[in-house]
Amino acid sequence: MKWIRRLLLVIVVLVVGFGVVMVWTAQRTERPVGFELARTTDPDGKPLAVGIWYPTQARTWPTTWLGLGLMDVAADAPVAGRSLPLVVISHGNSGGPGSHADLALALANAGYIVAAPMHGGDNYADQSAAGTVGWLGGRTRQLHATLDYLLKTWPGHAQIDPNRIGAFGFSAGGITVLTAVGAQPDLARIAQHCADTPEAICNLLRAGNSPLLNPDEAAKGNRYLPDARIKAAVVAAPGLGFTLGPGALTAVRVPVQLWSGDQDTVVSYATNIQPVRQALGAGAEFHSVPGAGHFSFLAPCGPLAPPLLCTDQGQFDRKAFHQSMNASVIAFFEKAIR
């Protein structure tokens, strides 16, 4: 029976050691940040989960798991402050509220309330809406629903300044945020583009036998409702940029900060970011990140995160990059909506 006791001892030591590592690597902030996972509904009446970060005076604990790691936050604590600015985050395809948890924490540390919806039908647990005709328009409406909830129903809504709202979007979330501030993509352009210049999104659409590869069907999805409440946008590696034809960004009148990784093989600069940059012209603050791949824009990974999302090329330091990027995003919002 000694071997059983020894085995149990080893297991206990491993579990305790792993717990220590997880706590030690939890994402932390200088000032206390509160967090809650709220529930509301999307425009179709379906459940919509929303991660919410905010300033608080409560004590934090490194025990809240979200996305790629632990967060040192005060769960469900009271909000501290008045007339606080709000930033809504739109994650990429197959992502979730924790995809950009480090940015959310940094913004909350700087005095912002941050809300990240888990896009229904396009998240790590449910891909039923991805590639459908209503995919992109549905994502945009979910951003509207998130803002409605934060400004009208959320218990801390009275502490939000409704005149100071920004948005951040990555990949599919990037084009989502662009539509929310006035962009009008033409999904009927997808079929020809994928025939001429196949790229990652084309392979995904083909694998799913997407109706978006049929121009007539895809055109039915060209329904986007801009949200005038959003006063500034940060867009990282936006996908489907090739759907933005002449005049598609004419109605975008808010300041935009645009990011691209020069090693991004998932969303290429030439067919996705460049059209946005050229259309916005001097209205966009552009950042090209040397060595960054597509997933380099996701939050730095914890010990249990999947290698596919966490492995960067060469000696690229994702943690250091995010510290710099988060500071730039905060500085942009400070100027644009503060």
Proportion of strand residues? 15-25%
Please, how many domains? 1
Total number of helices: 10
Largest sheet, described in full? Answer: 10 strands, mixed
Number of strands: 10
Cα-to-Cα separation, first versus last residue: 67 Å
Mean of pLDDT: 91
Proportion of helical residues: 25-40%
CATH topology: Rossmann fold
* Rg over alpha carbons: 20 Å
List unreliable stretches of 5+ residues: 6-24
Could you give the topology of this structure?
Layout: H1 2-24, E1 33-41, E2 47-55, E3 61-66, E4 69-75, E5 84-90, H2 101-109, E6 113-117, H3 135-153, E7 160-170, H4 172-180, H5 190-196, H6 200-207, H7 215-219, E8 232-236, E9 256-261, H8 269-280, E10 284-289, H9 307-310, H10 318-337
Parallel strand pairs: 1-4, 5-6, 5-7, 7-8, 8-9, 9-10
Antiparallel strand pairs: 1-2, 2-6, 3-4
Helix pairs in contact: 2-10, 3-4
Protein name: Dienelactone hydrolase
Pfam families: Peptidase_S9
Organism: Hymenobacter aquaticus
Report what the structure shows.
- With 338 residues, this protein is of the alpha/beta class.
- The protein has a single domain (2-337), classed as Alpha/Beta hydrolase fold, catalytic domain (Rossmann fold, 3-Layer(aba) Sandwich), CATH 3.40.50.
- The protein has helices at 2-24, 101-109, 135-153, 172-180, 190-196, 200-207, 215-219, 269-280, 307-310, 318-337, and strands at residues 33-41, 47-55, 61-66, 69-75, 84-90, 113-117, 160-170, 232-236, 256-261, 284-289.
- β1 and β2 form a beta hairpin.
- The protein is globular and about 55 Å long.
- The termini are far apart.
- InterPro entries: AB_hydrolase_fold (IPR029058), FrsA_esterase (IPR050261), Peptidase_S9_cat (IPR001375), UCP031982_abhydr (IPR016986).
- GO terms for molecular function: carboxylic ester hydrolase activity; serine-type peptidase activity.
- Residues 107-187 form the Peptidase S9 prolyl oligopeptidase catalytic domain.
- Pfam families: Peptidase_S9.
